[in-house]
Amino acid sequence: MAAQSKLYLLPPERPIRRILSSLARTYLQHRTHISRGVYLALFATLVKRIHDAVVEQKAASQRAADLRDRPGTSSLGGDDNGKNNNNNNTKKKKVEINREFVKNLLRLLRIVIPGWRSKELRLLVSHSVFLVLRTLLSLYVAELDGKLVSSLVRGKGRDFLLGIVWWMIVAIPATFTNSMLSYHQCRLSLSYRKRLTDYIHDKYLSNMTFYAISALDDRIKNPDQLITVDTSRFADSLAELYSNLAKPVLDMAIYNYSLSRSVGGEGLFIMGLLVQLSANVMRMLTPPFGKYVADEARLEGEFRFLHSRLIDYSEEVALYHGHNAEKDTLDKGYFTLIKHVNRILRRRLYHGFMEDFVIKYFWGALGLILCSVPVFFRIPGQVTQTMGDRTESFVTNRRMLLSSSDAFGRLMFSYKEISELAGHTARVSSLLEVMDDLAAGRFEKKLVSSASTEENAAVLSGRGTVTTSSDSIEFREVPIVSPNGDVLVRRLSFRVQRGDHLLIVGPNGCGKSSLFRILGGLWPVYGGHVAKPPPSDIFYIPQRPYLSRGTLRQQVIYPDTLRDMHTRNITDADLYEILATVEIAGVVDRPAGWDAEEEWRDVLSGGQQQRIAMARLFYHRPKFAILDECTSSVTLEIERVMYETAKRLGITLMTVSHRRSLWKYHRKILQFDGQGGYIFTALDWERRLKLEDEKEDLDLQLRAVPELQRRIAELTAT
Ligand SMILES: Nc1ncnc2c1ncn2[C@@H]1O[C@H](COP(=O)(O)OP(=O)(O)OP(=O)(O)O)[C@@H](O)[C@H]1O
To answer: Where are the domains of the chain?
Structure first.
């Protein structure tokens, strides 16, 4: 053993060499104990770091909980009786590889890999099997390479040829493994995306989150981009990272083990330290790529939104000849995006330069030094004598080292990839977090200055109640408050029973539509009590009717499906009759009839769209209908037909309109003055019309007075 542990230094004459030689001898005598000590120390450091991290994580969670529980920073309730969160200090989150990232990533991982028996885990396992297979094959190829070169150096043609045959045979499983690896990566990415999209869709389309996210909250500007693009990028990045991390880690472990056997564990350890040191320096100099990625995704989303806005309003913009103004807006959006992308490119350039220098050249030199160890030093337990053996060991070691340093390089590069994953994780997590907050009734919106007055703040801190089993609609002392804290009406009280057709009037922006948003459960109730029938008994028709994607039939029965229609025993002939009532049955005469699919918003005129919306009301026959300026584009005759049919079907109408022609269909009136006041009373429409006519006459006469005075003055002067 002592003889084996002898280290030969060439040449060992000088005193310093002698000291080194005796030190080496002492080391070799106690080699096992020293190694155990070093490994134990490393293990203790690792345990301590993990313990510190856990303690700090707990403290951070406690701090976050304290902040959330503090009065004034969170709101109560959900759906109908929540209230606004007045916390305007929207946190600017840093995108970094920190505990927050790990926490978010773990949450997303639980979504994309929901359990031990999930398809995703099975895919990961088989992916890992192929990863191990590939590393083992590469190891075998490294040894084969060494043997081939050794046979060449020794001039053994038969061995060489045999080696080549093996080389070709190994190529078959090797190439298959490579293809399977990329196949698994793509499958994993797709599965992750599907899981995440399903999860987000479930949340986004429940509790009216899709409405609240844009109307009641300021934090997410473009949920469409987050759901479509960022989710996909996160899935790609996660699937890619697994192979980019798992493979190099595995490679490094296996290659380093094999290398340590031929070049000695000490050399490898020292080299590992040097590499770690330089890696730390590199990490410190690495720009925050995660934040850059998140910012780029946000800017891209904003730029896309500007384009989709132009498409939505193309007709209006074209009629205004607003293309130059729109071009300015688009150019500005694009410029901001490109400026950011250019900044990232420049950072990548400097970073790439540093990375290449350290990884390829500095670590390459270290590798060569390491490979030379068996040539200049005798490693305990190794017998290296002939030129052929030395060549074989050098070639094998060099190949393994190249693979190992390539693996380490990839691990280093993967720091950048992890940063980018942190960016995608932050984006997707922010969406999930906001959706959770909205579901719990916590909103963050910039408030108007008037919201901070004492009186308004008192209104905003209140909380109302809602019941959904009433046969009438009643507001009892309910404040009308816009999402940004503007108190439009302090206490509104009225009651509409079935048959009490209600007309709502008032100046623009006084809160007429807001009343319906509160009634529909879109806005929170800050006080008083709202009693209403269940949602299925109230139907809403806006001024600009919503036309969904799908067939003509689906436009009339929306949001019912074909199956719902059949359950209700309604046929196409019934639908035709409904369309005939509002004089729009002609649309069915298209070639595909009821099954015609078009972008209905573009192919129907404004008036036709309003008629379809009215037909929808007659199909559903609810107990109450909210008609928000929904006849503004149709003739008085069609309007008459619409109102009379609705009343005949027993629908109680709540109309917002400035048209006098509609007064006669209503019994009650709710009149806002635009200053926060209102009158709720019976509507004697004939008397009211007469009074309005009289008032208009007097107004006209009053307007003529200055002209008459001027004329009298002229006549007096002459
Ligand atoms: N999502 C929103 N976020 C913030 N403020 C809003 C929102 N929707 C409406 N408001 C504000 O609430 C106020 C009342 O709006 P509302 O739509 O109820 O007016 P309206 O009386 O129906 O007016 P009009 O006759 O013009 O339709 C307006 O000042 C408007 O700016």
So the answer is: 455-683, 688-717
Ligand 1 pocket residue status of 514, Cβ below 6 Å = yes
- CA–CA separation, 389 and 326 (whole Å): 74
Q: How many CB atoms lie within 10 A of CB 209?
A: 22
Q: What is the pLDDT of residue 23?
A: 75
Segment 668-715, tens digit of pLDDT: 999 999 888 999 998 887 777 788 888 888 888 888 888 888 888 888
Residues paired with 173 in a beta bridge: none
Ligand 1 contacts CB of residue 423 (under 6 A): no
**Does ligand 1 lie within 6 Å of residue 482's CB atom?**
yes
> Mean pLDDT over residues 343-364, rounded?
81
- Taking the centre of ligand 1 as the mean of its atom positions, its distance from the CA of residue 524, in whole angstroms, is 15
Closest ligand 1 atom, CA of 629? Answer: 27
User: How confident is the model over 13-32, as pLDDT tens digits?
Assistant: 567 777 777 777 776 666 66
From the CA of 214, how far away is ligand 1's center (Å)? Answer: 15
Residue nearest to atom 30 of ligand 1 (CA): 509
**Side chain identity at residue 199, one-letter code:** Y
Q: Record the tokens describing residue 355, joined without a space.
A: 């990375």
Element holding 49 (H helix, E strand) = helix 31-69
Determine if ligand 1 sits within 6 Å of the CB of residue 511: yes
> Residue 307's closest CA among 324, 288, 327, 286?
327
Q: Is the beta carbon of 445 within 6 A of some atom in ligand 1?
A: no
Residue with tokens 């019309």: 689
pLDDT of residue 260: 67
pLDDT band at 49 (very low <50, low <70, confident <90, very high): low
Which of 438, 432, 401, 151 has its CA nearest to residue 268?
Answer: 401
Q: What is the model's pLDDT at position 532? A: 95
Tell me what pLDDT residue 233 has.
92
547: Cα within 13 Å, side-chain hemisphere: 24
- Write phi, then psi, for 542 (nearest 5 degrees): -85, 175
pLDDT at 267: 67
Query: Which structure tokens are listed for 55?
Result: 């303690």
- Helix, strand, or coil here: 175? helix
Answer whether 595's CB lies under 8 Å from 552's CB.
Answer: yes
455-683 CATH choice from 3.40.50.720, 3.90.420.10, 3.30.240.20, 3.40.50.300:
3.40.50.300
Instruction: Give the pTM.
Output: 0.69
SS (H, E, C) 426-455: HHHHHHHHHHHHHHCCCCCCCCCHHHHCHH
Atom number in ligand 1 closest to CA 506 = 21
Task: Report the separation in Å between the CA atom of 463 and the middle of ligand 1, taken as the mean of its atom positions.
Answer: 21
